[in-house]
Amino acid sequence: ETQGLTRLFDGKPAVLDLALSVPVGAFYGFLGPNGAGKSTTIKMLTGLLAPSAGRARVLGVDLARDGVEVKRRIGVVPDGLSLFERLSGAEQLRIHGQLFGLDRREAGRRADELLAALELTQDAGKLVGEYSHGMKKKLALGCALLHGPQLLFLDEPFEGIDAVAVAGIRRMLQDLVARGAMTIFLTSHVLEVVERLVTHVGIIRQGRLAAQGTLSEVRGAGTLEEVFIRTVGEERPPAQGLSWLGEKPT
């Protein structure tokens, strides 16, 4: 939950007076065009970036007062991946678990389960630097889940992942929410996938919250894509044709 959350860069607002309300157990889709402030918001909510003004409570904890406690209880898959490329996939997961306080045996057990669930078992011994972009995305998701977070932040988690893998990850995430295991806060430009996943939606436009509510409240009688385009479409200039394409050579 945020109140007046604001972040300025060189005096210009990237996020302005943001009032988010994400219920416990929700699958929350946070949508907006490029540059609208989505990643900046996630960085503030995860304690990586201090707000210029306003307050944020995460899992009932005031982020400004006890950011370390918040970080213990959340998982994050950032848009820009930060993995140890000279470790194997299995080593990455096990070390990540130990950094969160798991003993070596438990970290190894959870790592093996995640490698199987994310279809990375056959590549577990490969160096992360040899992984494809999609494999790295899946490994980053495994790292975010390993310590059993109560709240999971996903910033463009499906980018570069094939449709079969997306379907498997989607089922896993839906099951986690359905079982009450965690709350998920998701940003993605793939609106069709978002519409199948989320229970709640927020739309940000030029750093300000433009719409928020349950999926059915925000979507109304249309599709999520139609609502999104109506909400933020005026930011886009009219499409210009490319005059030289289709011209006959002279």
| Span between termini | 63 Å
Q: What kind of sheet is the major sheet? A: 6 strands, mixed
The number of helical elements comes to 9
Order of strands, main sheet, comes to 6-7-8-3-9-10
Give the DSSP E fraction (strand runs of 2 or more residues): 15-25%
Given as residue ranges, the uncertain stretches (5+ residues, pLDDT < 50) are none
Overview of the structural elements:
With 250 residues, the protein is an alpha/beta fold. The protein is built from 9 helices and 10 strands. The strands form 2 sheets. Strands 6-7-8-3-9-10 form a 6-stranded mixed beta sheet, with helices on both faces. β9 and β10 form a beta hairpin. The longest helix is centred in the C-terminal third of the chain and has 16 residues, at 163-178. The protein is globular.
